[in-house]
Amino acid sequence: MSIRVKLSPRQQQVLGATVRHYIATARPVGSEALVDEFYPRVSSATIRNAMGYLEKAGLLYQPHTSAGRVPSDSGYRVYVDHLITPSESLSRQVDQLLSTQLNPEELRIEALLRGAAQILSTLSGYIALVTMPQTGAAQLRHLQLVQIDSAQAMLIVVLDSYETQSTLMALPTGQDGTTDPEHLDRELQILTNFLNAQLRGRSLQEIASLDWSELGRTFDRYSNLVRASLAELNRRSQLAISTQILINGVAEVLRRQPEFSEIQQVQTILQLLESEQDQLWSLIFESAELDNTGKRVTVRIGAENPLEPIRSCALVTATYQRGSVAVGSVGILGPTRMVYEDAIAMVEAAANYLSDAMNQSLN
């Protein structure tokens, strides 16, 4: 969402100063406060005129008649889109923390994501949200065919998330209607090695649509059986695509952010986080994936959030990728009175780190 409003350089400065002061204090901002803190050589009347224009433009408002001004959702939007630059130093700090405290080669995917969420919430003071990778987009790490008896084998698939799936597969019989167990074991092992060489690094979706004539004549009699079994695993994964969201920092944000002091508001947010994750997952993953602005990070402010429980919040998200495919999302949920330049930098750095970790898992 973009707000189109024409502001003079002075009005931009006053809007930026008002937002920064309100973020720092959580109190309505008066012209005297801006003069004292930002513009000691500018008269209060000049600042008041600029604030009056910003209020008429819908970028500031007065919560009470005698109070100072507070940024509106539109004011925050202009601030985010035009008046800030994400903190490069904080981005480097996040990357260093993630790199030194988490090791993709030693941790399972879920442990890695939980660690990233904890670091993100601790640094930001907000709620960190990290979605588990999409099973349908997960890539094959290892495949094994194990003989059960003369008529069937078990196809075991290990994905790069270390999730294991299996299904039973019928076995072809010899020309005389019998199969030698030792010969079949050797044949299955050769086929296992061949399939790993051909399929490792491909997603279940991709494997299900491969041209199986590429398997070659040696394994022609297995091709339809293996293809059907892998297609079944892909079908199951599509029916059970993970919408689990790893959440960290709820207690911290309740303690540190005054906006979350109202019990009723907190209860609706907690219900969304605990019981309605499918709705939240669609928002933080699909909206980021489909965003066509060209920006890496998606920022939703206040009423821009379609879910009622978080319409007083800001949600900053970015997808992490495997290759060029978005497989999950990382984000921060906090009050609209958020340090956006820091939140954007942290989310982008975390998304970049998780993307690198996803791609390292197959190397």
Overview of the molecule:
This is Heat-inducible transcription repressor HrcA. Belongs to the HrcA family. Keywords: Repressor, Stress response, Transcription, Transcription regulation. One of its GO terms (molecular function) is DNA binding. Residues 110-344 form the Heat-inducible transcription repressor HrcA C-terminal domain. The chain has 363 residues and is α+β, with helices and mostly antiparallel strands. The chain has 3 domains: 9-82, Arc Repressor Mutant, subunit A (Orthogonal Bundle), CATH 1.10.10.10; 88-134 and 242-360, Beta-Lactamase (2-Layer Sandwich), CATH 3.30.450.40; 137-239, Enolase-like, domain 1. The protein is built from 13 helices and 10 strands. It has a 5-stranded antiparallel β-sheet with strand order 7-3-10-9-8, sandwiched between helices. Strand 1 (60-61) and strand 2 (70-71) form a beta hairpin. Helix 2 (31-37) crosses helix 3 and helix 5 (88-101) runs parallel beside helix 13 (340-360). Residues 289-294 have low confidence and may be disordered.
Name a few traits of the molecule.
363 residues, Enolase-like, domain 1, 13 helices, Beta-Lactamase, 3 domains, 5-stranded antiparallel beta sheet, 3-stranded antiparallel beta sheet, elongated, Arc Repressor Mutant, subunit A, 17% strand, alpha+beta, 10 strands, Heat-inducible transcription repressor HrcA
Fold topology:
Blueprint: H1 9-25, H2 31-37, H3 44-56, E1 60-61, E2 70-71, H4 73-82, H5 88-101, H6 109-124, E3 127-131, E4 140-147, E5 152-159, E6 164-170, H7 181-199, H8 204-208, H9 220-239, E7 245-248, H10 250-256, H11 263-275, H12 277-290, E8 298-301, E9 313-322, E10 325-335, H13 340-360
Antiparallel strand pairs: 1-2, 3-7, 3-10, 4-5, 5-6, 8-9, 9-10
Helix pairs in contact: 1-3, 2-3, 5-6, 5-13, 6-13, 11-12
